[in-house]
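Why does residue order matter? Because the sequence determines the fold. Keep that principle in mind as you read this record.
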Amino acid sequence: MNAKAVDYSRIANSPQFKALMAKKKRFLVPMSLFFFAYYFTLPLLTSYSTVLNAPAFGSVSWAWIFAFSQFIMTWVLCILYSRKSNEFDSMIEDIKRSNV
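Structure:
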């Protein structure tokens, strides 16, 4: 076999890999915190307050509006991540090219 062994330690210690991980962290940590805060707001508000019980229109309360907005929020975050992942993928390709 002529397959060249990949030195993962060298890759993990490279400045390009560290930059990739820092960039991913700057994106993923705030998005994850936002997601969990938004997600847990509904059960907390419905359990410990009556603020979402008021009708928004007809017999539909604000709790239902908030619950539906969570689907929209999830889709938006997925779209944002999909777009951002293209940038991460190009950084990964650069790392692979420089460490071959």
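The chain has a mean pLDDT of 91.
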